[in-house]
Records
---
Amino acid sequence: MSEAILEVEDLKKHFPVYGGVLRRQVAAVHAVDGVSFDIKKGETTGLVGESGCGKTTLGRTALHLIKPTSGTVRYMGRDISKLSAKKMRRLRLEMAMVFQDPYASLNPRMTIADIIGEPIDIHHLAKGAEKEKRIMELLERVGLVPYHLYRYPHEFSGGQKQRIGIARALVGNPKLLVADEPVSSLDVSVRAQILNLLKDLQKDYGFSCLYISHDLSTVKHMSNRVAVMYVGKLVELAPVKDIFDAPRHPYTRALMSAIPVPGQRRENRIILKGNVPTPINPPTGCRFHPRCYECQPECAKDEPELIEVEKEHFVACHSKKST
Amino acid sequence: MKPPTNGAVLRINDLKTYYYIAEGVVKAIDRVSMKINEEEALGIVGESGCGKSTLAHSILRLIRKPGKIVGGEIWFEGENLLRKSEGEMRKIRGSKIAMVFQNPTSSLNPVFTIGSQIAEAIKLHQNVQKHEMKEKVIDILGKVGIASPSQRMKDYPHEYSGGMCQRAMMAMALSCNPKLLIADEPTTNLDVTIQAQILDLVRILRKEFNASILLIGHDFGVMSELCDRIVVMYSGKVVESADLKTIFEGAKHPYTNALLESIPRINVEKDRLHVIPGDVPELIKPPPGCRFHPRCEQATEACGKEEPAIIEIEKGHEVACLLYN
Amino acid sequence: MFRRSRRNAEDKKEKVHRPSRATRLFVVLRKLKKSEMAIAGLGIVSFMSMVALLAPIIAPYAPEWKGIARQAPSMEHFFGTDNLGRDMLTLIMHGARISIYVGVASVLIEVVIGLSVGMAAGYFGGIIDEILMRIADVIFTLPTLMMLLLAVSMFQVRGIHIIILVIGGLGWPFLARVVRSEYLSFREETYVEAAKSMGATSWRIMVRHILPNILSVVIVIATMDIPWAILYEATLTFLGFGDPASSSWGVLLQRGEEHLRTSWWIMTFPGVALLITSLGFNLLGDGLRDALDIKLRE
């Protein structure tokens, strides 16, 4: 039983909505509304959900890039909200992030050497020739030729830029890597390069990974465990095989049946009615109940808890069929 | 002379669309040919820069400076669309050939109600009296699955979700019973469950309206849901075209196969994905000979010199590769 | 096109092209050299500065020398004489000393204050933004002249340096607003978020990430404000807050206005001097702005 690198407990993040003449808070966006899970050492936990489910906010709140409204985030057992600003800054070497848009995540006015060298400078890890050596090693690690060190981002392709972003994240030998849709902005033929790279690097460096994506096929390829979010809450959390082969929550089942498979025409799809609700005014009780095809009377009143129905398989649902 | 369509709704011959920019000439579409049969759904698959979007715009003659259609023919209903005047094209757009775009919310005018926009589309091509118009709009909104259409027609685009906007766009496109519906990445920006709804809708509408469909995208899964035939494009050229089954089970072009191997699939377990080395080439300076050869594992020396012609290796299956010459 | 890494002897042999800090400066200078605009601007500014610097030596007459009043331009007096008989060319040359100094110095002060205020307000937002912007609004909306007068009258000392301090100290709100709105938008950039995620301090982000992106805007505004500063100085001197004997271009312009119908040269030539200098600064500013843009390859 490996120890947990990251433990998230009842995490909530609400964004205020201001309105009216006096600009008072009139409502709140319940982006993340009570999420608990953990990521074990060396593991990749996939985080999936559709737009508005809160997965992006969850990723950033877990890294304390956004301050949570309530709840705790523990990194290696320590509550990171209790850390001093200085200690938190130091910790950022170990908790790194790879962003979705490779074009936007690199400062266009900085050379590659500056970009990758920035964490080295911020944390005073190396100087001069030693620093340059480290940068070149990292570039080689991510599959780039190191001698274009002093070029600018716009001289590289999307896939190469993403490699640079990954190299930058690896500077501090991170123990946790949060990857927010790392291949969504890339051409299809380039995605495999980056996905393979991430897997290889994980083997070499041994970091845990929180892999956020809306593309279920890549999540299946990359993750050991998968967490499914819906309007700010976790509805299911299970090992990857179970999520895809034997999903239990009605939403997860609908999600899985909705995925188009190359070469097949799916019969008996579960087509959900209606739209994804807005996180400003989520439905009462179970958030999925208005669209749920197994809705019970109590679903509109009580919010279901996330309970372990099988080993390591958690579901939040009232329906007998899913539990 | 017999119109060279032969039962096909649309036939493209040797189309060339170039963009003239400061750095040089971008051959976005370089001698592309294909046809769409009656009531058939054809899918065009390709990555960024392959020319698929340019193709859609070329068919509807929506190419603006610095782009220009410089050669080829597009035969529709016995006439060459490239020879038509702008006025004649306007009569065709929206009525005989309709198009649905990638970003539904930004394709709709934010200051007009959905109902008025659909009514405008109908008014442009049909002679409908005022009192009949409302009925028609409600009818078509209902057909595309918008609940309570009589109320929702008074809403503005920002009050509609992404999926609903896409439905509204389809309502506009189908309102005049087109022969050909072009859908350019219609579900790319939609959530998975909404995408499933829209694909389902398109299937239903296809039966009801008897239109041919040209579906453009980069997701093989979405293509599999709707299309009968698939054309694979790369860097401005067609590399392979065949029916759905053949593409997935017996594709011949190295790019098609490599692409299929490299995408992670729900139903296939793989530790490592097959990698296509290198990057998609820049169209300003495409590689000489076969455009895919720098990244192709089976490339020979000849591939860098000679551009492969499209050859029919079996009935209904065409490939552009020197391996099969 | 960039090749992927292959363990190739060829690759290993190629050396890293390692430009030092100095080289990057040279790249900017090289680009400046190529821009005709920048050369013209630099030329004009250098020329005027040289004239200002060497005025006491190269001026044809002494500034106090008085000859025949209101002489039209002639061989002895290229730009004529003013209403008191002083040689215009001499006055303009000496005026350059004051005007260019005032122009550049006050704009420098304005830029320092405006940048700092705008940065803080735009990046941090919240209460800091509110307070700073309210101050800026007050200074911005009150009539400039009134503010200038009020400020200058608060100080007992007279002289050019007070004027410079006042012009710069009251001229920053517009720049601050522009800088603030730039920071508001740039702080949302993904690469700023990336910097935060690796532990960058706010200072580092403001100065190393965002500032280089907004320099071009600042340069444009600064070069446009130089002529304004020169004119404000004239007003203040005229109203008695500067050295009454000063012959800055602004003062010359004001003096010349009275005699425009009879002796047009008293106002025209200082005006032309001001015009050309402003043009020079503007061109230089544009050239600098383009030279700083890394996307424009040589």
Note: The domain at 27-57+89-291 of chain C is CATH 1.10.3720.10 (MetI-like fold).
---
Amino acid sequence: MTYSYVVSISRKQGLSDPEGTTTKKALNDLGFHGVTHVSYGRTISVEVEAESSEAARSQIEAMCTKLLANPVMERYTIEAAS
Amino acid sequence: MTIAVIVYPGTNCEHDIAHALNRAGTDTEMVWHRDTDLSGADGVVLPGGFAHGDYLRTGAIARFSPIMDEVVRLADAGIPILGICNGFQILTEAGLLPGGLVANRDLKFICAPTHLRVASTDSVLTRAAEVGQILELPLNSYEGNYLVDDVDSIEVEGDVILRYTNADGLINESTNPNGSMNNIAGITNSARNVAGLMPHPERASEDILGSADGMVLIEGFIASTELVDA
Amino acid sequence: MTTLETPDHIELGMTDDEYRSVIAILGREPLAAELAMYSVMWSEHCSYKSSRSHLGRFTSNQPWVIVGPGENAGVVDIGDGWLVALRIESHNHPSYVEPYQGAATGVGGILRDVFTMGARPIAVWDPLRFGPLDEAHNRYLFEGVVSGIAGYGNAVGVPTLGGEVEFADRFSKNPLVNVMALGLLKEDQLVLSGASGVGNLAVLLGNATGRDGIGGASILASASFEEGDEEKRPNVQVGDPFEEKKLIEACLELYQRNLVVAIQDLGAAGISCATSEVAGNGGMGMDVDLDKVHLREHDMNPGEILMSESQERMLAVVTPENEAEVLGIARRWEIDASTIGTIKPGPDLTIYSKGELVGEVPAASLADDAPKYDRPAERPVYLDIAWANGPQVPADLDAGAVLRVLLDDPAIGDRSWISRQYDHMLFLNTVVEPGHDGSLLRIKGTEKGLAVSTDGDSLRTYLDPRRGSARIVYESALNIAVTGANPYALVDNLNFGNPEEPGVMWQFIESVDGMAAACEELNVPVVGGNVSFYNQTDGVDIYPSPVVGMLGFCDPMPLRPPRLDRAEVGMAIWIVGPDAAGDFAASAYDRIINSNLGGRPTDADPEIAREVIDAAVSLAFTTPVLHDISTGGLAVSLAEIAIKSGVGVTIEGVTGPELFDETPLRFVAVGQGDTLEIAAPHRRIGTVSGGTLDFGDSGSISLEEAANVWRNALPRRMEH
């Protein structure tokens, strides 16, 4: 069976996020003064063939720690795509 | 003639292009991105660099700078506008040139000399060159890969002014350093007064630098500014 | 007084003796924030406690030295009001943790060291060392580091003009990432770090302060942190080259307008280091209000604010009259600024937070009273064993076959896989770009030229630290000389293992001595340097890896300097320098063909060095091709010239072993004519010819094959 997941990866709390900071300033400059925080991340959609959803899920976990996220700097969440 | 050189936070080629323009005999003036007055400018250059750090998308934040309204106004009035590398990216984000620039095909920054073939001399940049002329100019970019929604239409319109090639003028995938559609290295708008290219003419403006092929483009641009009533 | 609990000094890495010294200095037990400051400022990285007593061996009393060791960068005079600033730094351990950011922040740091002197940074070089590329993790580190240097350097807008790379197993867990930077300034813009003027203000410029780099120290955890909550303890500093670019431009404008009394960049130990050095170096004191520091996170305690290593920050001392203008310039360049301190008479650095005193220490004591250890040194046992295990090089070797193998080595093959990722053209100063021997830059509006070479040789240094280190200096000088420049100043990056081991300490002292002696022979001042100790994992130390960054100067500079790609069919090929002396210890031949590391390297003769260097400088003005003979010997030098020029060579009267011999102080000259007008020993060895590298009876290889192998050495390992 094919299982679909969406992995959201973002920088760990406490680490500097220059892109987020710069984009927040740009939004404020454009008149969106209410914006108080912007942070960056990326979304990766993965479809995987597996025997069960547990098996698929554990594969996705492995993918995250091995490749998709940099464990030194990033954290991630995994959601099953509807 | 005075050519305005727009400086964003993160622009870094402004002194180089000013040096080359001055050597070719024209005055330049650095204009900060928050300024709003270009009334004295006979031409405008958006130089290379990393405006706003290229954060979000390259050129995406820069196109909203206060100075861009003036650049658009001058473009509409027919004043020659040139975007080099990051400047080219900003002009596409601002809609003054068709298409966009994305990451190089091999996902590596490229700093290397490239050959270009002049595809059309109908632009403020290539007017002093000849169709088919081969020029050697350095490429220096990560997001130099040109793409556009309807490439056939810009080809038909004659908007393409420079293509990547090799020393023999061959144009195909093997002579395409970054994956750009149809080997497109430089583009002009339909009014022919706005031009953009990824390689750097100022870096090929003196023999001591390895090539002076960029001078024909720089001189062409200067000549264009002299032809327009300010 | 503060409510923070003062932790155990041992947890912070201090010895009992060091702790007692702090008590003696303060006349009491230290407060938490004070102990944190001493513990970081007295760490090996900040205080050089194991190396300081030996670094005095270097000399820098030449008249063209304006600023010697001790400031943020060395500065030399090149005449007509022009000064050059130079510095080299390491970022080894952070690059192992996170290669991209470790390397990126290394570049950021070295740039700040240069522009804090009043100079615009104009170029960067990166000598790098990794484990062998057949291991995936080493490829990951190599790729990450190169990307980080490219990502930061290209974005900040400073060209990277060269570097070098070495691969050996001892670097697998301890990669070495050294970065050298050069800056250019007019003499009236020189700024130093010592504050002056009671009542002057200390302004913090640049990034907001966050928790970067303080994750390791448990003392600094706020009460709400939980054990093992890694999320809140980042140990990686993230570089923002865009912020640094704005900071460079803002500072240069401040210098141009003479608005800065003193300035210091923030690196290790952040605000605590910068404030104490700015005050201490000027013999002054400072009051600091941590509430004024612009923060990225708003619940930081005083210790965290003091120790944070957030990047892209500078501390400037300005007069109260100029404060508004300084803040205005910062605002215009879109960087944050906050006035955090006031200069007062010495000696104390007094720190306040939320109206309370959280620390008061004699400002100069953090740097000046740091411990100084004269650690025991003992000649290690491995040396005699290694010397007895010398290289075997058969007289009848097949030069073509050997060369083919050598050209495939990643440290010898084409390094444009690396250099293509770096912008080397920005500023339009580059006259000799990466891929030749030394870099050569012009200074627009003058006829002056600056040459730079970075060089290291860990294996040779391992086999004889004194001779090996001296030879690195001479090799670097020759790389400079072949561009037409004279060796002018030197910075050194000393990368060694654990100094608590007598064998390592012995290597260090021998290396410093060998290097210092060579510099004296060449009359080259050592204007600064960096020491990186503790490059050791699982009890295995790296090979001793001193790296030299040499600056050369010429006025006028050659209009057409020699390059490797200017050989033409019919030109004569010469070898200049002493005869090959059977020197194969630590050679590429022994390493690659024999998989051996043994024997004793020969000594480089200083008199011959001067003669050969002078010869190179004078030939550089008239000769199309000059190329030093180093790794891989004559055969590799000839191959590189042949491949870049698209020609072959026909060589006579050179034996197989001589082709791979690595006797120092030799170079190849290629040009028209039958004679070389130089005093140094030289002999003609052949002629530039068609498509073969023909070594006579020793063998041959086609140009095409040599080129293919050489060009693919790195790509075939890094791209799949």
Note: Residues 13 and 74 of chain A are 9 Å apart (CA to CA).
